[in-house]
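From the shared-data thread, chain only:
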Amino acid sequence: MPDLHDDDAGGLAPPTAAEIDALLRAALSPTFLEVIDESAAHAGHSGANGLGWGTHFRVRIASPLFAGRPRVARHRLVYDATQDLMARGLHALAIEVTD
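Structure, as tokens:
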């Protein structure tokens, strides 16, 4: 696990994959969920924090709450569940909705 220390996000540690996982499980009751921290692959890019973790994530998710909703509405549910992490340095969230 990364060392949780202060950074440039207002003194708060960047989010972790485990935190995103917990938020999405609580909000969306997924039947499938995978959260991958891809931050290291974005080192030096816009939004990277220099730590190599906590800025760029990929989420693969299936949830019964997505039934009958268009893709944009499904993504909005994911973004709404993770909104508070933006202030902590979450810069990019790639969302793959599965059935």
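Strands lie at 32-37, 56-62, 92-97.
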